[in-house]
Structures are given as C-alpha cells and as structure tokens.
C-alpha cells in the first residue's frame, strides 16, 4: 500500500512537468533549410550547479540551463550536440576555435558583444542578503550602520556593485559563496551576499541550516542565450523559441532548480537519536514478549510437526504404492508372478492382452497352458537356477500359445523375488512380433541391395565417418571388387588398404589430393585415373562419390567405380590419331612453305635472268635498227613495257609465295604487311613491335605471318573497320601477336565452322600455341595468338 501511495504521489508531482512541455514552433521553409544545413548544432555549457552538472554514472547532463535548452530543442525540432567546459574562459576559447554554436546562461557584457549575439533575458536571478535565522525584519544595506561586515564572493559581479553603491559597508571578499556563508556561521561577518542559484544549492547543507534570507540588494543576474555572431539566423530562431515559452514554464524552471530549500526536520541528528532510543526500548520489550510466547508454542509445534511427518510419510507410501500399481498395470511389458508350482498368481493388463485372455482369466493357470515347453521338470530347473544369486536374470526367446491358438513370439526374462514369507518368479514377456518383422524386412532389403550392387557393372562402396574428427572407414564394398581389381571386398575394406592404395604411382598424388579435400569438406568428389589390379594390370577407372550428412554428425559417401579402360583406350587412340594428323598437317604445311620458297627463288632467279636478257636484247635491237624503220621503234617500246609488266608480275608472284622481308625477321615482316594493307584498303593500321625481339624459328615466324595475312584479309572483307591495331610482344616464355579492329564485330559461335578461323586455329595448334578470339556485334574484334619461344633462344 505504501509503495502504491508513493508511486501515486510521484506521478502527481511529475504531472506538471509533463503538462508544461513546450509546443512546437512553426518555422518557415527557409528556417528549416538553414537548420538542416547547419545541424547538428553544438551547445557549449559551463559545469556549474545548479545551472549545469554532469552525472558520470548515468553519463548525462542536468540543470536549469540544460532543461531550458531541451525545451528549445523540442520547440525547434532539433537535437543538440553538447560540449561542457570547466570555466567561462574555456567556453570563450571553444567559441574562438569554432567548436560551439551557442551557449545558455551567459551574462551580457561589452566584451562579449564582440563575440556573441545575446537573446532577451529568460531568467532573473536575484542577489540575496543572508544572515542568522534569529534576525528579525528585512535588511536594507544602505540602512546598516557604517562598518558593518558583509562577506561576498570575490569572483561575483556584485562585488563591484556593492563597492560603488554602499560605501558604508565593510566588504570582505571570499573565494566563493560557500566561504562567504561560512564567515556568517563563524561570526566573522554579520551578513553575506549570494545569488539565489548558489544559495539554493548551499541551503540544503546541514551546516547552513541556521541561516536565512533577510533581504535583496536589488541587483539581479539576467541570464541570456548567446549564439555565434556570424550566425544571425540562429539568434533569430533562439529568440522565437524563447518567446514561445510561457511565463509559467520559466517559473517552473526557476522553482525546480533555483528555489531555496532549508533542511527538513527529518534531517536533524537529535531527532533521529531520540527515535532510535524509543525504537530500541520497544524492541527490547517486544523481544521479551516474543521469547515467552515462543517457549509456550515450542512444545505444541514439535508435536504438530511429528504428526504432520507421520501423515506425510503415510500419504507418500500410499501414493508410491498407487503409482507402482498403475505403472505395472499400464506397462507395455507383460508381467507374471508365478509360484513354485508354475501357476500364475498375478498378471498385469499387458500380459492378458498379449495372451488374448480377458481380465483375471490368466491367474491360477499353469505356465504350460501358454508355453507347452515349460513342463514341470523344466520349470523346477529354472526355479533352482533363478534362486542362485550368481545366475542373475534368465532370458530366452520362445513362442507363446494365445487363447485363440495362434502363436506369439516373445522375449522371456525371469527373476527371483522374495516377498514376506513367500517366494515368486517374476516373468517378463515382451512382444517381438514387430522386431522380427523389421528384422526380416531388413534382411530382405540387404539381400536386395547386395543383389543390385553385385549386378552393377562396377564396384559399389560406402565410406563412413562416425563423428567429426573420426577416421573414415569402409562401411560396405560390393563383391565386384574381385572381378574388377582382383582383390576381395574384405581385403580392400581394411583401414590400411582401400582403393587409394591401388592407384598408379603417377596418379597417386592426384587421387589422394582430390579425395582428402572432399573428405575434409564433406562434399562430393570424382576422379579418373589408373588403378593396378592384383596381377599388375593397369585399368582406367572413373570414381564418383556422393556425400550425405546426418543430424548426429555422421557423414557417408556412396560411390561407384566404373571400368572405363575400353573407352579410355579409344580416347587415347583418338588423341594419338589427332596428334599424328596434326603432325602430318604441320609437315605438309612445312613442305608447302619450303616448296613456295623454292618456287619463289626459281621464279625470281630464273625468270628474272631471262627477262633481264630479253630486256637487254630489246635495247640492243633498238640501238641497231630503230632508225631504219619508224614502225619498229613503236614495236620495241611496246615490247619494253610488256617486259617491265612481266618483271612486276614475277616480283608479285615471288612475294606472294614467300615475302623476302621474312628473312629480315618477323617484326619487319609485320610492319611490311601492315603497310601493304594500308595501301590496299586505305584503313589506318597502327603497328607496335619491340626493337629487340628474341629470335624465332622460321616455321613459327612463317606461321605467325600467315595468321596475320588471314586476319587482315578477314578485316578487309567483313569488318568494315575504320582502324586496325597490330602488336607483337614477348610475355614471359611466350610471344603474343594481337590484331584488333573497331569494325562491326560478330558472334564467334555463329561462325564456328568458318574455314578461315579453323585454318588459323589449326595453324596455331601445329605451332604448339593457342588462339583466342574476342568479338561482339558492334564492338569490334580482337585476335590473340600465343606461341612459345624456342628454348635455345631463351638461353
């Protein structure tokens, strides 16, 4: 009840604070834009209770100025970024450094007007005269007799005011307001002057409980909100927000933080001492009475506890007996109590249901009615064995005859029991019909699986790991291992052998790396390679294994080993045939290039010599006979033109068969071919070749040159390009020829069967290199050819 009352009082006291929350201020769009552009605004505050104080445990600020700024933030719809300082000098330094935007609780001074823009006063803090509580009447400082001692804080702005207006007083400066009040307590000063804010804080201290306010000097502190002078918009917003606050709210702020509070009566040490003595006397009297009552009650309580204990033990025994009887009756295991004469003395409901008898029909029947094999001699033998402690429980499996004559397979367990003066054998019956059916189904499933695995044309296996970190073992391997590898499944399933032990020495590392990575990551794996049979024969196999994970952490891999020796032989033969065809093609190409070179030399040398002699003979004829017949001169000129044309034709044929520039190196040949392409197509061709290019074999140089010729021919026919770039550079141990154009491009997949591309690719393959083609419709084409540099060249 007291807790509820305190909660209600707290809510009633807090209600005015909630009710006086400031209403939001209506801002223009320009003002909102300014706040968004300059947010968050930084508020600098000096830590001086009760205006501002910092709670280190809760990491939050509180005080009159903090609460005022929170009201202004609610009215403007902004959040402040607080910066607190220990003194006004640090606050002024932060302003000059541009670290703060506004500060509450400042006094307007001529020096401050150069740095700040001040708002209208929002709080009036009077300076009060404090004296002893026994003083009567209000005190007027100018009415005091001359030489009256008045203490005042030396850092207070009121000190100069008192000196200039009250020359009759003996002013005594003190370090702070607390020291000024202490002088009044010590009677070294008659009165003290302090502002209401500091007096509200100090009046709560017990040492100043005998002091009271006796007058007002008429010099209040006018607190304002100061903002940076270079932000007049902020000063306008602060002024509007202050005008939005009601006088009731400012009075509430004053009463909450600046109201002077004197120590309450409950804080007096003497009062609490008297209350403590009274409570001690009441406690001693109560203790004496309670001791007498406890002695009177102790006997009754002991007897009552004994009676309750006996009653609880009796109830517990009865409850345990009922639970045991219920558990036996509702058990799924049949329970029989059998006497020495093999007759049943008790049967639970499960036993009656198993044997097919109604309730109570099993009692007094001999066991031979249910199991004909338990005749009296066998029963007595079981009785003697069960009574021996070292024998323990006897168990066996049999078939019981049910009431309808059907047979019920059961597991029988017999234990000896002595109850009072009587001896019994406890017979436990468990129906194993479902277990036998499941066992039979499991055997049939295993037989079917073995039959399927045995007929699969490959080796079926299962790897299993019982738990993370445990070794991986063979859980199953089909008997096909004998026919495939010559080893039995039992031999290969050993932990030190397995399939990996049969891998060919050249394939051993690859097999182990693939399998170990798959087993470590619990994922599928596949491997193709050679295994060695027991007879030493190599067989190509394809191994695939699929991983499965179980909730208990177990992982299994079901896999199969296929014999792909025949397919691999065909694949190797096909690869060898392709290699031979490529070698033959390379040889034919080499022979053709040599034949072209020979024909080019013969055309150039033989026909060149004949044409030179023919030209000389024509010139001699012209010198000897041209003047004899005017028509002969025309015929000779015509013959000379034909000879010149034939000279050019011979050079063109020889150049087409083998350009002589190839003898100067592949770099010069590329530049020569690019210039011929420019002259023929009028397409600019940019060539980039190194000055020092490693020497290249004649076959590779001719191959690269022919690929370049074919590429430029395709560009001329199909690309519709505006420019072509050709580069040749050495990259490590390879030489790269790159031909790029900015033509219309094409889809390489759509022209997969182009003889030009196929010819270039085959020519590069014959050189032992690679060719890549990058092209997209509308994006040009780039052809790159990579061939290896000759080893003797690299050295």
From TrEMBL:
Sequence ranges assigned to domain Histidine kinase in this UniProt record: 598-791
Keywords (A to Z) from UniProt: Kinase, Signal, Transferase, Two-component regulatory system
Span of domain PAS: 445-522
UniProt cross-references to InterPro entries, sorted A to Z: HATPase_C_sf, HATPase_dom, His_kinase_dom, PAC, PAS, PAS-assoc_C, PAS-like_dom_sf, PAS_4
The PAC domain, residue ranges: 394-444
Taxonomy, superkingdom: Bacteria
Pfam families: HATPase_c, HisKA_3, PAS_3, PAS_4, SBP_bac_3
Name of the featured protein: PAS domain S-box-containing protein
């Amino acid at each position: 009840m007291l807790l509820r009352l305190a909660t209600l009082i707290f809510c009633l006291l807090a209600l005015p604070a909630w009710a006086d929350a400031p209403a939001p201020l209506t801002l223009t769009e320009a003002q909102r834009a300014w706040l968004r552009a300059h947010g968050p605004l930084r508020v600098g505050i000096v830590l001086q209770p009760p205006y501002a104080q910092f709670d280190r445990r809760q990491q939050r600020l509180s005080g009159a100025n903090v609460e005022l700024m929170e009201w202004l933030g609610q009215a403007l719809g902004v959040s402040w970024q607080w910066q607190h300082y220990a003194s006004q000098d640090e606050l002024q330094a932060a302003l000059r450094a541009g670290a703060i935007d506004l500060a509450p609780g400042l006094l307007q001074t001529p020096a401050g007007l150069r740095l700040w823009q001040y708002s209208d006063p929002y709080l009036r803090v009077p300076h009060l005269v404090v004296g002893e509580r026994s003083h009567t009447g209000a005190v007027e400082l100018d009415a005091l007799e001359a030489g009256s001692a008045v203490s005042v804080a030396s850092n207070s702005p009121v000190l100069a005011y008192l000196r200039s207006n009250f020359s009759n007083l003996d002013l005594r400066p003190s370090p702070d307001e607390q020291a000024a009040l202490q002088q009044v307590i010590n009677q070294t000063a008659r009165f003290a002057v302090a502002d209401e804010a500091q007096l509200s804080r100090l009046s709560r201290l017990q040492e100043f409980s005998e002091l009271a306010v006796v007058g007002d000097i008429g010099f209040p502190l006018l607190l304002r909100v100061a903002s940076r002078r270079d932000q007049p918009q902020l000063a306008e917003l602060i002024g509007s927000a202050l005008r939005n606050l009601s006088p009731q709210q400012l009075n509430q702020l004053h009463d909450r933080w600046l109201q002077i509070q004197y120590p309450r009566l409950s804080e007096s040490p003497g009062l609490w001492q008297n209350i403590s003595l009274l409570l001690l006397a009441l406690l001693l009297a109560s203790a004496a009475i309670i001791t007498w009552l406890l002695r009177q009650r102790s006997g009754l309580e002991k007897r009552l506890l004994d009676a309750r204990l006996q009653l609880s033990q009796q109830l517990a025994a009865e409850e345990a007996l009922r639970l045991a009887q219920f558990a036996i009756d509702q058990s799924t295991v049949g329970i029989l109590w059998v006497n020495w004469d093999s007759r049943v003395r008790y049967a639970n409901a499960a036993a009656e249901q198993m044997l097919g008898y109604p309730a109570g029909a099993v009692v007094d029947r001999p066991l031979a009615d249910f199991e004909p094999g338990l005749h009296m001699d066998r029963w007595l033998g079981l009785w003697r064995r069960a009574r021996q402690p070292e024998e323990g429980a006897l168990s066996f499996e049999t078939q019981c005859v049910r009431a309808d004559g059907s047979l019920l397979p059961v597991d029988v367990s017999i234990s000896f029991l002595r109850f009072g003066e009587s001896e019994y054998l406890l017979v436990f019956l468990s129906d194993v019909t479902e277990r036998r059916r499941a066992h039979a189904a499991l055997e049939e499933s295993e037989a079917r699986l073995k039959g399927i695995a045995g007929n699969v044309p490959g080796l079926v296996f299962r790897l299993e790991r019982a738990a993370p970190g445990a070794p991986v073992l063979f859980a199953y391997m089909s008997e096909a291992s004998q026919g495939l590898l010559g080893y039995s499944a039992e031999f290969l399933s050993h932990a030190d052998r397995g399939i990996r032990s049969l891998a060919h020495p050249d394939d051993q590392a690859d097999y182990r790396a693939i399998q170990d990575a798959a087993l470590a990551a619990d994922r599928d794996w596949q491997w193709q390679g050679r295994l060695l049979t027991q007879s030493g024969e190599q067989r190509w196999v394809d191994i695939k294994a699929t991983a499965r994970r179980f909730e208990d952490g177990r992982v299994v891999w079901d896999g199969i080993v296929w014999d792909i020796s025949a397919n691999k032989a065909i694949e190797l033969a096909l690869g060898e045939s392709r290699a031979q065809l490529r070698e033959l093609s390379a040889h034919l190409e080499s022979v053709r290039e040599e034949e072209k070179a020979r024909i080019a030399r013969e055309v150039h040398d033989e026909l060149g010599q004949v044409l030179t002699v023919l030209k000389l003979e024509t010139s001699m004829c012209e010198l000897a006979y041209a003047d004899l017949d005017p028509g002969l001169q025309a015929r000779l000129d015509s013959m000379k033109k034909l000879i010149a044309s034939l000279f050019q034709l011979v050079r063109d044929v020889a150049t087409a068969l083998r350009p002589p520039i190839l003898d100067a190196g592949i770099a010069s040949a590329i530049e020569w071919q690019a210039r011929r392409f420019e002259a023929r197509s009028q397409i600019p061709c940019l060539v980039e070749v190194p000055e020092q290019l490693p020497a290249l074999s004649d076959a590779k140089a001719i191959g690269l040159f022919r690929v370049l010729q074919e590429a430029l021919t395709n560009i001329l026919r199909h690309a519709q390009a505006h420019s072509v770039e050709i580069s040749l550079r050495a990259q490590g141990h390879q030489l790269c020829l790159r031909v790029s154009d900015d033509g219309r491009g094409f889809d390489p997949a759509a022209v997969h069967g182009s003889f030009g591309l196929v010819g270039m690719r085959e020519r590069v393959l014959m050189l032992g290199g690679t060719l890549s083609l990058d092209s997209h419709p509308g994006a040009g084409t780039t052809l790159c050819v990579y061939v290896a540099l000759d080893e003797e060249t690299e050295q």
